[in-house]
């Protein structure tokens, strides 16, 4: 079995955010599917408003619908990696990444399963020698057992298969954070995607998982299995579109991570410390006890007193009533409970400044 994937990436310009423990991110999104009909293709084309997404299908014929995008092929064994390379060499489409889907299943040979770290290293050598970037998509058990042993300098692309644990957002966030810290300490260039699935979580749970993962990962892969392959009542185009629209609404936030520096002086690497009374405001706001305008006053205070330094945003809508997106309310709740830190919460503030919801 060889799988085929389509990847689209942007590399935005501008100042890079420098916040302790937060990575530069462009929040790519991807789809893994067993079948791709015209309706799904049209939906993906509609939602790919930026050139930074992935489409994963089972046949190369899908590549023709996304000709301008970076493409990926791969398989579940070293033998299949060789086959993928042969197909990539002869493909009319330019293939950039060959990925190794090593898992506890019959498609990965037992000798490779018994030595995952060595097998990954062999796969990297095979793929790099052929002139392609190397990716891995181990099942979660392999990843957690071996992420501190893998030579990440050899790995260009990682898929974290979190779909079966995505309903537990606290576990997902802590796991993704732990793995990404190790990976990026060894290779900051490794692209990291978190995989979720409508098969295992409903729309709200899926979006909550994405909301938590986006602080640490470069992107999200959504497993979408159309009805008829496996029981998946949540796998509808309507639900998928809801999730993709939500991701697109987060893109502005993610792009702000690369466009606006939190600080512009020589204290750039210092950890942000937000006053406790702002945390109380965040808690009350998340519970609906105070309104958007009241909460915005706390944010404006932090900017005016230079707790957080952000470039001035000019906007003529100074008298317009403030309406803050719901996902920022989720951030405020998690921050007030201590689930995320000051730096992560500051990214939400940065987004509000970036799009002119709160004026400085």
Fold and architecture overview:
- The protein folds into two domains: 3-252, TIM Barrel; 276-354, no CATH class.
- With 360 residues, it is of the alpha/beta class.
- The protein is 41% helix and 14% strand.
- The chain has a nine-stranded mixed beta barrel, surrounded by four helices.
- The N and C termini lie far apart (55 Å).
- The longest helix has 23 residues, at 237-259.
- Helix 1 (38-47) links the parallel strand 2 (28-33) and strand 3 (54-57).
- Helix 8 packs across helix 12 (342-354).
- The chain has twelve helices and nine strands.
- It is globular, with a radius of gyration of 21 Å.
Rg over alpha carbons: 21 Å
What's the β-strand tally? Answer: 9
Order of secondary-structure elements? EEHEEHEHHEHEHEHEHHHHH
User: How far is it from the N-terminal to the C-terminal residue, by CA?
Assistant: 55 Å
């Amino acid at each position: 079995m060889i799988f085929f994937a389509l990847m689209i990436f942007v590399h935005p310009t501008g100042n890079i955010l420098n916040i302790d423990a937060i990575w530069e991110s462009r929040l790519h999104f991807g789809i893994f599917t067993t079948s791709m009909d015209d309706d799904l293709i049209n939906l993906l084309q509609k939602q790919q408003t930026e050139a930074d997404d992935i489409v994963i299908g089972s046949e190369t014929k899908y590549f023709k619908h996304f000709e301008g995008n970076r493409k990926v092929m791969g398989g579940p064994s070293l033998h299949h990696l060789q086959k993928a390379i042969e197909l990539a060499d002869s493909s009319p489409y330019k293939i950039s990444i060959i990925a190794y889907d090593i898992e506890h299943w019959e498609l990965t040979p037992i000798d490779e399963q018994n030595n995952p770290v060595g097998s990954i290293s062999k796969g990297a050598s095979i793929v790099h020698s052929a002139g392609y970037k190397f990716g891995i998509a181990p099942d979660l058990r392999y990843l957690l057992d071996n992420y501190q042993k893998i030579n990440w300098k050899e790995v260009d692309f990682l898929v974290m298969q979190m779909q079966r644990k995505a309903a537990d957002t606290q576990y997902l966030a802590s796991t993704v954070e732990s793995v990404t810290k190790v990976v990026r300490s060894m290779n900051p260039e490794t692209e990291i995607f978190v995989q979720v699935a409508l098969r295992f979580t409903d729309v709200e749970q899926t979006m909550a998982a994405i909301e938590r993962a986006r602080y640490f990962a470069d992107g999200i892969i959504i497993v979408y299995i159309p009805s008829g392959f496996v029981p998946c009542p949540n796998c509808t185009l309507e639900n998928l579109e809801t999730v993709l629209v939500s991701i697109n609404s987060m893109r502005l936030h993610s792009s702000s991570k690369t466009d606006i520096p939190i600080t512009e002086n020589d204290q750039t690497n210092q950890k942000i410390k937000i006053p406790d009374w702002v945390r109380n405001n965040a808690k009350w706001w998340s519970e609906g006890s105070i309104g958007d305008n009241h909460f915005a006053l706390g944010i404006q205070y932090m900017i005016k007193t230079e707790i957080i330094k952000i470039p001035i945003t000019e906007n003529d809508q100074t008298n317009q009533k403030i309406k803050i997106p719901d996902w920022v309310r989720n951030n405020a709740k998690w921050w007030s409970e201590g689930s995320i830190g000051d730096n992560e919460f500051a990214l939400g503030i940065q987004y509000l400044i970036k799009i002119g919801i709160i004026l400085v």
